[in-house]
């Protein structure tokens, strides 16, 4: 029996690998704060936790939770400079997926 995802992939012209990657990106970014983080980091190469917190008006403790989860999943990378941690996008495809969704007519 052919798995349903294989049939759907063929019908939509997508490979199984591409469908899995998109599903992974959607799972990891499935929160408004995480989407906003991606949008900020798409516009600027890297930002400190403090900068992101101020721009999004989100408490640093909550923001750190989102950032560390996204880093753990390979979406973001970080570097430490003194007391500050700077985050940047590691998986640039995340921006493409979010831009695709933003262009949907039903949103």
* Largest beta-sheet characterization: 3 strands, antiparallel
What structural category arises from helix and sheet content? alpha+beta
Low-confidence stretches: none
In the CATH hierarchy, the architecture of the domain at 30-103 is: Orthogonal Bundle
Total of helices: 6
Strand content: 5-15%
Q: Tell me the strand order in the biggest sheet.
A: 1-3-2
Query: What is the H/E string?
Result: HHHEHHEEH
The overall strand count is 3
End-to-end separation in angstroms reads 36 Å
CATH top level of the domain at 30-103 is Mainly Alpha
By CATH, the superfamily of the domain at 30-103 comes out as Winged helix-like DNA-binding domain superfamily/Winged helix DNA-binding domain
Q: What is the average of the pLDDT values?
A: 89
Q: Roughly how much helix do the residues carry, as a percent range? A: 55-70%
Radius of gyration: 16 Å
Identify the overall geometry.
globular
CATH topology of the domain at 30-103: Arc Repressor Mutant, subunit A
Pfam family, one: HTH_5
Domain HTH arsR-type: 14-107
Keywords: DNA-binding, Transcription, Transcription regulation
GO molecular function: DNA binding; DNA-binding transcription factor activity
